[in-house]
Every structure is written in C-alpha cells, then in structure tokens.
UniProtKB/TrEMBL annotation:
<protein>
    <recommendedName>
        <fullName>Sodium-dependent bicarbonate transporter</fullName>
    </recommendedName>
</protein>
<feature type="transmembrane region" description="Helical">
    <location>
        <begin position="290"/>
        <end position="313"/>
    </location>
</feature>
<dbReference type="Pfam" id="PF05982">
    <property type="entry name" value="Sbt_1"/>
</dbReference>
<feature type="transmembrane region" description="Helical">
    <location>
        <begin position="23"/>
        <end position="44"/>
    </location>
</feature>
<feature type="transmembrane region" description="Helical">
    <location>
        <begin position="226"/>
        <end position="244"/>
    </location>
</feature>
<dbReference type="InterPro" id="IPR010293">
    <property type="entry name" value="Sbt_1"/>
</dbReference>
<feature type="transmembrane region" description="Helical">
    <location>
        <begin position="56"/>
        <end position="77"/>
    </location>
</feature>
<keyword id="KW-1133">Transmembrane helix</keyword>
<keyword id="KW-0812">Transmembrane</keyword>
<keyword id="KW-0472">Membrane</keyword>
<feature type="transmembrane region" description="Helical">
    <location>
        <begin position="89"/>
        <end position="110"/>
    </location>
</feature>
<feature type="transmembrane region" description="Helical">
    <location>
        <begin position="250"/>
        <end position="269"/>
    </location>
</feature>
Length: 321
C-alpha cells in the first residue's frame, strides 16, 4: 500500500504536467537518476569492506528524491523571486522511480552472479573431493552439471530485469504510477491512501529502525566511507543535474529556476519513497547504511549547502547573461 501511494503521487504529478514542454528536462531527470545509482555502484561499492548490496541500496536512496528538500528549495526560491516553470516540481518522479528501479535491478544482477559463482565453487569442491575425472559420472557429478561450462556466457539480464519488475515492490510502485497516469484517483488518494500512508510509513520506519539498530555493528567498521560518500555525493549529483539542466536551458529555454529544481532533486535523498521500496526490493541490504548516511549526512548537506549553492550559481548565470 505504501508503494502504491508513492506511485500514485508520481503518476498524478506527471499527468498534471505539460509533457510537451518537460520532455527534454524529464529525459535528463531519468538519465540523472540512473546515472547516480551507477556512480554509487562503482565508487562506494569499491571502497574497503563496503558491502555491494548496501552500496547499491545507498546509491538508490541518493538517486531517489526527498519531497521535504524540494519543498525547502521552492520556498527559498519564491522568497528570492526566482521564477520557474509550474511543472518543474513534477520532474521528481522522473528521477525518483528510475533510480529505485535501477538499484533493485542492479542488486538482482549482482545476487544472480553471486549465486552462479557460489555454484562454481561448490562444484570445484566436489570435484576435488571425488578425485579423478573419470569417476565423476560414477559419483553423480557430470560434465553437464559443471557451472564453469557456462563461465563464458554472460548472465542473462532480461530475465532478471523481468523478475525484478514482477517483484512485489516494483509491481506496487509501477501499478500506482500507471493508475495515477491513466485514471483520476485524486478522491480515493486523498480520502484513503493519504491518511493511511503516514501511519503505515511510521510503523515501517520503526521496524526498519529496529533492524538498523540490530545491525549497526556491521556499519561501524565502514562508517567513515559512508560519511564521505554522503557528503560528496549530494553536491556531485546536483552539479550533474545542473549541467543537464543547462543543456535543456540552451536548447528549449528551460528556466534557470527549473535548472535549480533539477539540481536540488538530484542532490536530495529520499525520505519517503526510497526506504520502503528498497526494504522490499533489496531485503538483504542493511538499512543502517542507506538510512543512516542519508538522514545523518546527505540531507543536511543538500539543505545547508546544496540549495544555496545552486541558487547562487543560477543567479550568477542570470547576472552574466
């Protein structure tokens, strides 16, 4: 239910936006969300003792969007009289949902490869135990059961992607998105999903907090790497989105206020849609890693440094032009 509500809100925002005008910025928002996850997968995950599934989940959360950070940015922009497109805030689901989907698919691919590697190691141990090669068939170990025979074959990606999309987490998320896009569920949304969402989210966050506390010892050994990532990543992600926004600005006339909004949603890390989605989609990831790095470091950096920085940069560009 939580994820259906997240999808519904995103679908409603997209349906109410001007899709013709937002086509290029929306494309860049999707690209940014996916790129953020890949950056985390191949930077944070490479640091010493950082578990890959934890890194992927953390990158997914940093690729997803915080509504509260976006609201803070809009308030500050309006106070300073910075204009932006009415639909610019609706870019958030274009970054939020692709980032979460990408994280879950990458985690599924990694898990599949790990299972294949474990099967190869098990086969080798049996091979050594039973001795000579000619005795394999007698002992019930045949060449056809050798996982290393498939070593040169790549892991088939589409079945894993399909399985991920059919999982309960993404199915609920995408169902809500489709309902928000194709129907008009505002009355049901306001009367049913919105009131329940806060209570259910509170329960989920309590459960995740208990799990995170139980597993906090795993994180203590690598906490410094998550702190470094959570400090640098929001600013880097925001600059990437700012660059894409400037391309849209020069091609389509996308406002500099809209560019700032794109940068802010890229710098933010989800506090609502991300945790339940990642908890369901990547259950083996440690919530201490992605929630702790986001709430303790990432969100304060985005609020205190990111928002003023991107607004100042946009104002400098306005003055230069």
């Amino acid at each position: 239910m939580l994820l259906i509500k997240v999808g519904l809100s995103g679908g409603i925002a997209i349906r109410n936006a001007n899709l013709a005008e937002m086509l290029l910025p929306a494309f860049f928002a999707v690209l940014t969300g996916i790129l953020i996850v890949f950056i985390g997968r191949y930077t944070l995950a490479k640091l010493p003792k950082v578990k890959i599934l934890d890194a992927i989940a953390t990158a997914g959360l940093f690729g997803a969007v915080s509504g509260s950070t976006l609201a803070a940015a809009l308030t500050l922009m309006e106070a300073q009289g910075m204009e932006y497109e009415p639909w610019a805030a609706a870019l958030y689901p274009f970054m939020d949902i692709p980032a979460l989907v990408t994280a879950i698919v990458l985690a599924s691919l990694y898990t599949s490869k790990q299972k294949q590697r474990a099967a190869e190691e098990e086969y080798r141990s049996k091979k050594e135990f039973y001795g000579m090669e000619e005795n394999y068939d007698q002992q019930g170990i045949t060449a056809s059961s050798d996982p290393s025979a498939q070593r040169n074959e790549r892991v088939k990606i589409w079945p894993i992607v399909k399985e991920s999309l059919q999982g309960s987490a993404l199915s609920a998320l995408l169902l809500g998105l489709a309902l928000g896009l194709l129907t008009r569920p505002e009355s049901v949304y306001e009367s049913f999903y919105a009131p329940l969402f806060r209570g259910l989210l509170s329960i989920l966050m309590i459960v995740m907090g208990m799990e995170a506390t139980a597993r906090i010892g795993e994180l203590c050994k690598v906490a410094q790497w998550y702190a470094v990532y959570a400090f640098i990543a929001p600013l880097l992600h925001g600059f990437i989105a700012f660059g894409f926004g400037m391309i849209a600005h020069y091609i389509t006339g996308f406002s500099l206020g809209g560019v700032v909004i794109m940068a802010v949603i890229a710098a933010s890390s989800s506090d609502i849609s991300g945790p339940p989605t990642l908890r369901a989609g990547i259950p083996k990831a440690n919530p201490s890693s992605y929630i702790g790095s986001s709430t303790a470091v990432g969100t304060p950096v985005a609020l205190a440094i990111g928002i003023p920085l991107y607004i100042a940069l946009a104002q400098a560009l306005m003055g230069a032009s």
